[in-house]
Design a protein that fits this description.
- The complex is a heterodimer of chains A (200) and B (136).
- With 200 residues, chain A is of the alpha+beta class.
- Chain A has 2 domains: 37 residues; 155 residues.
- Helices cover 36% and strands 22% of the residues of chain A.
- In chain A, a hairpin with a 2-residue loop joins strand 3 and strand 4.
- Chain B is elongated.
- Chain B contains 3 helices and 6 strands, in the order ααβαβββββ.
- Chain B folds into 2 domains: 33 residues; 95 residues, no CATH class.
- Chain B has a 3-stranded antiparallel sheet, covered by helices on one side. Chain B has a 3-stranded antiparallel sheet with strand order 2-3-4.
- By secondary structure, chain B is an alpha+beta fold.
- The chains are: A alpha+beta (200), B alpha+beta (136).
- The interface between A and B is medium-sized, with 32 and 31 residues.
């Protein structure tokens, strides 16, 4: 077997060195491409802000806005004016392709505190005293059109297949009605916008 | 050239090529993070989130120094970088279409680039949030 000279060995080592560098550079190029090629997903922040906006509009200083009541009962027509009252718009830019419109959903539920306490004894699902909603109903669990509606929750929390499709947020707050009754207000806010927030 | 001299030249060339290689890699990484496309998306989403969290009457200042540099490099006037049409933010740092993103907060937003006393841009963008005038 012919032995390689020192200079020959050095050249082979240099060649291997550059092959190694090329592989590392290729890896870095690929990682950078994957990282910067994917859109920034801001839907988590957006859905949180959406829920906060709704909460701020419903309850001020721990008291539910008087517009939500009609006499001693809830104002059943509040949803018709809710978006204008709270300065919310569902208008979005072009670029969402085949995604069903609108790109938002909110469901607001009011539970009487007394009903929530009674659940300990009745063991029955608590029905909200009043609820209203607007938006794309494809991404939540519950049936808002069911007469026995017993609340909604986010679709398959933690499941990556669903988090690609939407970002859901649940906020709960306690507030007092005009009649002094305490209510648990549950706000479910959903942002879809997957075309602009998830790599397709 | 004697043997010792040859080894030195080879080593120097080897080191120089390595340095060129690493420099290209670093330049590539820096360019990627400050590219017009990436910045357009970042700024438009940041502005949309700022407006979503804002209440009338608020004035918000946002530092867009990287954006100003990229816009100037691409021949775009910094004052034309951010456009707000209704509830849609458009950020344009190159001659291409730019990036748009919508905010849900139904307020009246105006945006302009801040200038110093000498009329030069300070890299800050000013956003003024007001209640929407009915019928607008």
């Amino acid at each position: 077997m012919k032995r390689m000279s020192k200079r020959g060995t050095d050249k082979v080592l240099s060649l291997y060195w550059f092959v190694l560098l090329t592989i590392i550079a290729g890896g870095i190029f690929a990682m950078v491409y994957v990282f910067y090629g994917a859109p920034y997903d801001v839907r988590g922040i957006e859905s949180g802000l959406f829920a906060e906006k709704i909460a701020d509009c419903i309850s001020k200083k721990g008291v539910i806005d008087s517009d939500f009541f009609s006499g001693k009962d809830f104002n059943r027509n509040i949803n018709e004016t809710f978006m204008k009252k709270c300065s919310i718009t569902f208008n979005v830019e072009d670029g969402y392709g085949d995604e069903p419109d609108p790109q938002y959903l909110y469901i607001v539920e009011f539970y009487k505190s007394a009903d929530l306490i009674n659940i300990k004894y009745t063991n029955q699902p608590v029905k909200p005293a009043f609820y209203f909603y607007r938006g794309n109903l494809n991404f939540y669990v519950g049936n808002v059109n069911d007469p026995n509606y017993a609340g909604s929750h986010c679709l398959q929390e933690g499941d990556k297949t669903y988090t690609r499709l939407e970002e859901c947020n649940e906020r709960r707050l306690y507030s007092t009605g005009e009649d002094g009754e305490q209510y648990l207000i549950k706000i479910l806010s959903v942002i879809i916008k997957s075309q602009k927030n998830v790599r397709q | 050239m004697n043997k010792r001299g040859t080894i030195l030249v080879e080593n120097v060339v080897f080191i120089i090529i390595n340095l060129i290689f690493l420099s290209l890699l670093v330049i590539f990484l820096l360019k990627q993070s400050s590219g017009a496309i990436v910045l357009e998306q970042t700024y438009s989403k940041q502005i949309a989130m700022l407006v979503d969290s804002a209440r009338p009457v608020m004035v918000i200042k946002m530092d867009m120094e990287k954006g100003r540099k990229v816009a100037e490099k691409n021949g775009i006037d910094f004052n034309n970088v951010v456009k707000i049409d209704g509830n849609i933010v458009q950020v344009k740092l190159s001659s291409k279409a730019g990036y748009t993103y919508a905010f849900f907060n139904d307020v009246d937003v105006s945006a302009y680039a801040e200038r110093d006393d000498s009329g030069k841009y300070t890299s800050m963008y000013v956003f003024t949030i007001n209640n929407k005038v009915s019928g607008k």
